[in-house]
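Table S7 (text form). Paired inputs.
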Amino acid sequence: MKRNITVQLDEEIIDRAKVLAAKRGTSVSALLSQQVIKMTEEAARYEAAKQRALARMDAISRRPPREGGKVTWTREEINDREAQRKQAEGTTE
């Protein structure tokens, strides 16, 4: 369901937006809509990536220490892109 909103912009910005919309063969409303969609999708992707990273760091930090209390993970494990991809997709080996 689509709904309308009212946005207040300076006259100069409105004029420039109208020119840009005309050049792109669309409306100012469509331009604004596209930008809002893009921004919200980027924010959602960022939040999802942040949550995956935090979960991975939490999982790694919960490992029991090795002999002598040393770090239990390697640089390769932390940067394992394949494992990160599978975790993001919700699949396991």
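Next pair, protein 2 of 2.
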Amino acid sequence: MTTFAAADHPELLALEARLKAAWGRYREHLVDLDGIAYREAERAEWEHLQTDLQEIAQARSALRAEAEPRAA
């Protein structure tokens, strides 16, 4: 398996920024809520977060696949 540093790949840096932003949105949308409002909002926000995380993971996998040496 090929590994590479994020500093060497701007695309990975962008994915890390997307990851931080996704978690930030999740927290931001819940921070001022409590009780029933929190429980209802948290469920929906968690689903949105999971979708974002899955998209980021797929993009990261695609970058890794591109970086793999090609068999001749």
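Residues 35-67 form the longest helix (33 residues).
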